[in-house]
Design goal:
Distance between the termini: 24 Å
Number of domains: 1
Number of helices: 8
Strand order of the largest sheet: 1-3-2-4-6-5
Strand content: 5-15%
Shape: globular
CATH architecture: 3-Layer(aba) Sandwich
Length: about 230
């Protein structure tokens, strides 16, 4: 319960954040100028908190909310093509009770896993600046501090990989050199195991750089490590 209250308090503070003017302007503009397919929906248009199991042993580290995905639904990887791939993989490996995530309140429940991002607001062109990345870093640091049972970090993409390494260093554990990102990369650092996966973006899935079996294998490996 203490962990749940800690994360709830963090979420309450995060969703009021207006620290980065460019990101605030963009997320709110997108929420006003809606995509035609979602014209009848009310967009979230705020920073998007992480979500999942407060007793998670696995932490998924993504880049940022999608403009018409999580910035619309208010839940990471929910309502976009990347999420379609991610939650299917989580369902197939026992971390999710269903393979789809369309909206908050859709019945999705995660077990043993927490989903978050390095940057909490949707950035223009999906490219946060280094200043925006650094301004957001305290939020994910507090998340990991509250997720006291987390031992496996799954980084989606190079941005997530670099962020996860920085996050682990912040917890007092550093590798002897900067390990190279790659799909299926695995590294033990202190009490943590870091796994790398290509991001399930349409750029990667359409080109088959990332396939469903490849993504599923990363989470199967995470489950095996915990066993």
């Amino acid at each position: 319960m203490k962990r749940s209250r800690s994360l709830a308090t963090l979420e309450s503070k995060l969703t009021r954040c207006r620290a980065c003017p460019r990101l605030v302007d963009w997320r709110e503009q997108v929420a006003r100028d809606k995509r035609a397919a979602y014209a009848d929906q009310t967009y979230w248009g705020r920073p998007v908190p992480g979500f999942g199991d407060p007793q998670a042993r696995v932490l998924i580290v993504g880049l940022a909310p999608a403009a018409h995905g999580a910035n619309r639904t208010g839940r990471m990887f929910t309502g976009d093509r990347s999420g379609d791939w991610l939650f299917r993989a989580l369902h197939e490996t026992g971390f999710a009770n269903q393979a789809e995530a369309s909206a908050r309140g859709d019945g999705l429940e995660l077990s043993g896993i927490w989903v978050t991002s390095m940057v909490k607001c949707a950035p223009p062109d999906n490219k946060p600046t280094t200043t925006e990345r650094d301004a957001c870093f305290a939020w994910i640091t507090d998340e990991l501090r509250s997720l006291t049972q987390a031992r496996v970090l799954v980084a989606l993409g190079g941005f997530g990989w670099d962020g996860a390494l920085r996050l682990i260093r912040e917890r007092g554990h550093a590798p002897p050199r900067k390990p190279k990102f790659g799909h299926g990369a695995e590294l033990e650092i202190g009490p943590y195991t870091l796994l790398g996966s290509y991001h399930p973006s349409q750029q990667n899935t359409f080109t088959k750089r990332l396939t469903r079996p490849m993504l599923r294998s990363v989470f199967a490996r995470a489950a095996a490590i915990l066993d």
